[in-house]
Amino acid sequence: xxxxxxxxxxxxxxxxxxxxxxxxxxxxxxxxxxxxxxxxxxxxxxxxxxxxxxxxxxxxxxxxxxxxxxxxxxxxxxxxxxxxxxxxxxxxxxxxxxxxxxxxxxxxxxxxxxxxxxxxxxxxxxxxxxxxxxxxxxxxxxxxxxxxxxxxxxxxxxxxxxxxxxxxxxxxxxxxxxxxxxxxxxxxxxxxxxxxxxxxxxxxxxxxxxxxxxxxxxxxxxxxxxxxxxxxxxxxxxxxxxxxxxxxxxxxxxxxxxxxxxxxxxxxxxxxxxxxxxxxxxxxxxxxxxxxxxxxxxxxxxxxxxxxxxxxxxxxxxxxxxxxxxxxxxxxxxxxxxxxxxxxxxxxxxxxxxxxxxxxxxxxxxxxxxxxxxxxxxxxxxxxxxxxxxxxxxxxxxxxxxxxxxxxxxxxxxxxxxxxxxxxxxxxxxxxxxxxxxxxxxxxxxxxxxxxxxxxxxxxxxxxxxxxxxxxxxxxxxxxxxxxxxxxxxxxxxxxxxxxxxxxxxxxxxxxxxxxxxxxxxxxxxxxxxxxxxxxxxxxxxxxxxxxxxxxxxxxxxxx
Length: 560
Description:
Layout: H1 2-52, H2 63-76, H3 92-105, H4 109-112, H5 114-135, H6 137-148, H7 151-157, H8 163-182, H9 187-207, H10 211-236, H11 240-260, H12 263-272, H13 287-295, H14 297-301, H15 303-313, H16 315-334, H17 347-374, H18 382-403, H19 405-415, H20 433-440, E1 448-451, H21 454-461, E2 466-468, H22 470-473, E3 474-475, E4 478-479, E5 484-485, E6 492-494, H23 497-506, E7 510-515, H24 527-536, E8 538-540, E9 548-553
């Protein structure tokens, strides 16, 4: 009886130890999740603070599409802008979201930018949590901070546009795809992840058509991942033709169907399309390469090395990120229409690779530095060598940050506004139409209102009669004739001095407002227009920081 009781006690102690180990594992997991949540919150607050700084900056012209369409939606239930005939349908759900915010908080640029701010902050947090899940804390912090203080990310997070929201949907969709591939197949989990990924990509495609490029990169990765198994099946098959021929026939039928529907030609036309303002870089396949060299010279030149280090540590996720970024980079480099914002949805994957690569390199660099300081002639103690190595790495980090233009520009964005911005139309420095409207609008009567931006003139002055713009007259189907009403705003489009002269003869008085950065540009306001205004109109002096020139004919200038 006593022997049996002893065995029971031993078994009881073993069960208690097992339960203790299980409890310890669960406690460790909960503590890890809690710590990750705290870290993500801290990083999110840092990103949010950066995105709230100078949120009321002068708008980029495209923002006003959604602002004016949202106003129209609230006023008359349509999304027409000004006197335009067509409805502004691009990213219509985003416009509706802006309209609902206007309904609750009132109309304003800061209110219209709330979705971009929230999405831009959420993108940083999502990237951090994703990288932390497969590469650890150090890599996640590096990737998250790089994205949080990227000037392009801050800029797009402060616009009433859909780019940050598109990037969130796309990144979340790719994470769902990876979870689908890595986990067990079949059952409710697979169906839920597939539905989630499809829904996220559909939302991303609604906001930005370039989603198809990113999905193409994901499809290419899935094909490469499945290639070894397909090869084994081909070897095992009695006849490879029985396996391959149906696939080839299906591909040919799909191509024939797309060709018959003109889908391939339409995609090619879209791939080759560009506005006049982007014409200079339509054939520049190195556009994004030079952009990265300008903003991230250290990361970009070392990117192949960082990619190798990151691949050695996490082959699946980093291989996926590399292929997706490379696909987007190559497609956008070959496309005619180029802009930094078109590549933004792929930037989290660039920062993920860089973050993991740097996190893998730092321990080796620290160890090498410690060995150097412990060797002759320094012969430092272990503690002093660690201190010197840490100081050296910290100095190298500060030196790298100072040497990469992106972070210097981000610091300038967070500390200064539009008026003293030294770079022409790069993230900041838009013309101050608000100040001009406060000056001219109280005395504005029946005179003609002419602006170099129809959207800005309409938003700040309440109307626009004529728009001076070569770009808007250069439509996708060819050059439009002078005095063509713009489909979007209804403003009458002109570009030549002769056309403006006809307006001046037909209207006894008029006000002309031109952005200085558009004067003389190949897509903006031609020089002969300025020469005409200088001869026949009175220029009204404006502060240089406004980046505007104002002319009036047939009336007296207002007192400033």
